[in-house]
Protein 1
Amino acid sequence: MKQSEHPVSQTYAKYINPSFIQLLGVLGYGRVFVRASDVWLWDSEGRRYLDCLAGFGSVNLGHNHPALIARLHQLLDEQVLHFCHTGPAAGAAALAEALAKRLAAPLEMSLFASSGAEAVEAGLKLARAATGRSDFVSCDGGFHGTTLGTLSVMGAERLRQPFEPLLAGCHRVPFGDLDALDRALKAHKPAAFLVEPLQAEGGVILPPPGYLRAAQELCRARGTLLVLDEIQTGLGRTGTLFAHEAEGFVPDVLCLAKALSGGLAAMSVAVTSRALFDKAYGGAGRFDLHSSTYQGNAFACAAALRTLELIDEEDLVARSARQGARLLDGLRARLRGHPLVKEVRGRGLLVGIEFGPTGSSWLGKLAPSLVDKVSEGMFGQWVAVRLLEAGILAQPASSRWNVLRLEPPLTISDEDIDTVVDAVGAILDDYRSIAPIVADVTRRAGAQWRGGWQY
Ligand SMILES: Cc1ncc(COP(=O)(O)O)c(C=O)c1O
């Protein structure tokens, strides 16, 4: 059966998002994935794929970790109270304590929610309530979610523009630029500076060394809170439990989500200090200013608590650092001197390969903007499609299609890392100039068009 004729594709197109299903066909991603275990996915035809996307960094433990599933089965059998709005919830209390124990002082107070965007909203609201200020500064290229509040601090114009006007008083500065940040802090006296430790969706961009620590000092001097979005980088992804540990500073608010619940429940949190919590929400008139029905529900909290334990028990942080280095070194060695690979970069198991003009390609020298356009428009997606056909799921960064992002579960083995390096290397051997890419993409698009975009 064609994947586009699969009942799930048809029903999804009918009742959820027809353009998404059509685009999967146009781009060549049409697959209906039906099963997942550890680093592996299977589609409805029984084909197996090595997952190098991990739910955009949500599946750090690997899919359907058996110990996590066992804990959740046990919880469901215990008949606990899943919502405890008129009393303290045991699961939430235990999880908040476990988080505080893993974070540096003074981060100890948890505001739970379900999605990453809600955790960022919680951070922004807390900053307003604690400082009495209104403005926010965020970074070009930043991604923090797609609610109205988080869109207001979104770096990507395409995602922001259809919903404007958004929150007033939101300003953007280039990521990594301390002078621009200092000017913005002086000019706008913002409640918060919202930033990712490294930009994942923005193209796996690492800031200059010392940037975040210096940004924190600037914020302190100007009475602005630093809200750190570790929704994609947290929980071992970058080779430390939290990416900011490697930067030697502690943010005022830390936002976590995605991998926090092991990929099995919607769970997010904004963690802050007692002093800031008290300023924002201390007292009988303020304690309930920020709430959500599912916040701290028993199922999500149990999933998160067991996830934190499993990260420790399986030493996944050290494993992420080790396997990330193997991936980065392997790719750098294999792709060295490739005329269309500008850079291979990353930290831990968040790695990006940037395509574009280089000094070693004659077309790159003659017409860099043409090579840039092809790289941005199709190269990253095309390499991802070729990888999928080779049994590896990966995706370009959502705001920069010329950066192929590799983000497998932290449980990935040496052998599977080497498979990824070999597959990427073999595909890129076919494309040492842009003519064969354009020819292959055109040929494929023609065939798909003739087939009515069925796949
Ligand atoms: C850094 C970052 N912040 C926030 C979000 C939003 O999270 P959610 O999609 O759960 O709202 C994402 C999602 O990709 C993210 O990568």
Note: The chain has a mean pLDDT of 94.
Protein 2
Amino acid sequence: MSTQPLPSSFIKKASDIASFYGFRHAQSLDRELPKESRLAISGSRDADRVAEACVTCMVSRSQKATAAAAAVAAEKNEKPQQTRAQDAMLCYFTNPTPSEAPHGINPRDVAEFGVSIVGSSGSIGEIVALKTLFSILADSGARVRGVRIGSGGDRDSQMRFSRELSAYLKKRSADIPDCCSKSMAQDPLSMMRCPGEVCSKIIDEGPRAMGFLSEKSRSHFREVLEYLERAGMTYELDERLVHDPRMPRVLFSLDIENEDHLIVGARGGRYDDHLRKLSGRKDATVVRASVFFKKKGLERSAFTYDDREKRAKIYFVKLGLEASLKSLTVLDSLRKARIPVYQSFSADKLGPQLSEAERLKVPYLIIMGQREAMQDAVIVRRVETRSQQMVRLIDLPLYLKAV
Ligand SMILES: [Zn+2]
């Protein structure tokens, strides 16, 4: 017997799990958006539209915050400061497009549950997305055979690689079989997707995408791999993964061992350049991760979920990477205790996180810096009285249940 959950509960469960890592339903953004963007987010349920709406929302949030800060500064006769908005973490479900569905799966046979982190440029974005995928898969009884991961790097890295690959394939053109000889002329990278033996061999003997990473992309990718190791997730490098028309900087794919399982695959990556093109904003960043599950035979009710927002009483403030990494373990224990928190993974500064906590009107803060992370503890602060107490991580769920 397989340990599958009832299909009708899958999306509900998945979004419940995602909510403990800080993801909110895409629809909950609606009231923060200008009217014309509202329809885009709740009407289409398209991953690209969700990401675009997030960018719009963050821009308007940061404008509002900047205006508020300017008013305060004017009163005090001080110079106003630019306020940056926090990242937006959203979940949604949709029908995948052909380029998004896992390889070898008809996109019409599956539905997609996805999470997006818009506004986090650091490698912790990839880790949070992967961590969320792992939790959803583990909860559903799907066994992960392994993580394949690759990096194409930023636009410049990808352009250099693409030029090099084209030049190489031109030299080998006499060896290229019919399956790829035509498409080659239009899109040389398409050959990386060809399962044919001859094509695979030609690609294997050619230039490697990872050899063309810029210094910045290389160090970003190195960080992602380092965190994967520290989080105990085993991975293998897969250079072919990076071929995708949306030019992901990092791409990962999780293979499911139990073939009869409801979930057929999970994948995601960093699509900064794609979102920049869509939104016209040069600083846009997005990490996406999705679970694909069979929809054949599922009742309509399988696609409904509770989109009312779970209000959290706590905002989890993290300072520095050490704390961000350790926070993932903390979130696991809070999830098991069913204690939701708000958080962001983009900020390594205290100010923006505190103003976000203020905006959300939470009565409690959990604060973890480098020192607390080393001591396996956090500071719990009551916003109203500003009284605070050091609490050991092991005692945290019980402590928070009692407040
Ligand atoms: Zn081929």
Note: Confidence is low (pLDDT under 50) at residues 1-6.
